[in-house]
Amino acid sequence: MNEEVELILEDTEDNMKNALAHLDKALGKIRAGKANPRMLEGVHVDYYGSLTPISQVANIGTSDARTIVIQPWEKQMIAPIEKAIMAANLGLNPDNNGEVIRLNIPMLTEERRTLLVKQVRNEGEEAKISLRNSRRDANEMLKKMKDDGLSEDMEKRATDKVQKLIDVYYVKVEEQIKEKEKDIMTI
To answer: Per-residue confidence at 187, pLDDT binned at 50, 70, 90?
Structure first.
């Protein structure tokens, strides 16, 4: 019985880690006014008939705080990469010189910054909902185990451990949200 409880706790922590990783990925795609190659993670290029992540057909880097530089491995890929960036609706206009593509990141207005902060908070709330769902699922499994013969003390200890886990991950989510908000609001 004890092994099953440990398994439930491990699964719950894995789910919470996944929620945190998802939040990190979602926040990485939110533009903070600075050039970040992660902004292009969701962009897929038509590479000889199949949709391929842009990072698999080109080197992506930053030349300064406001410019993303994309250097395709094959020159004929410049046009499909530009097309994919425009189709991704990132609000960025690609500029190429025949060798590389440059994406200039415009300055954010105060109004846009406020909207981005709201978006960050929404992503954070989604992560918290995921954490709460993980806690609920774990607690339900523990209750079923109690009905199947798990001692009340062991169920109570396991439930307390689940609560401590969610407390730790709530703090981590809040830290990520605050860090991204600070990043967005910094001019």
So the answer is: low
Between 149 and 17, whose confidence is greater? Answer: 17
pLDDT digits (tens, 9 = 90+) for 151-172: 888 889 999 999 999 999 999 9
By C-alpha distance, which of 85, 110, 109, 107 is closest to 95?
85
Tell me the pTM.
0.74
Q: Which two tokens stand for residue 37?
A: 């190659």
Query: Is the pLDDT assigned to residue 13 strictly greater than 90?
Result: yes
| CATH number for 126 | 1.10.132.20
Q: What is the CA radius of gyration of the chain?
A: 22
User: Which pLDDT score is estimated for 126?
Assistant: 95
SS3 sequence of the chain: CHHHHHHHHHHHHHHHHHHHHHHHHHHHCCCCCCCCHHHHCCCEEEECCEEEEHHHCEEEEEEECCEEEEEECCHHHHHHHHHHHHHCCCCCCEEECCCCEEEECCCCCHHHHHHHHHHHHHHHHHHHHHHHHHHHHHHHHHHHHHHCCCCHHHHHHHHHHHHHHHHHHHHHHHHHHHHHHHHHHCC
Q: How far is CA 51 from the centre of its chain?
A: 21
What local confidence, expressed as pLDDT, does residue 30 receive? 78
**Pair 57, 88 in one domain:** yes
Instruction: Please tell me whether residues 99 and 113 are part of one structural domain.
Output: no
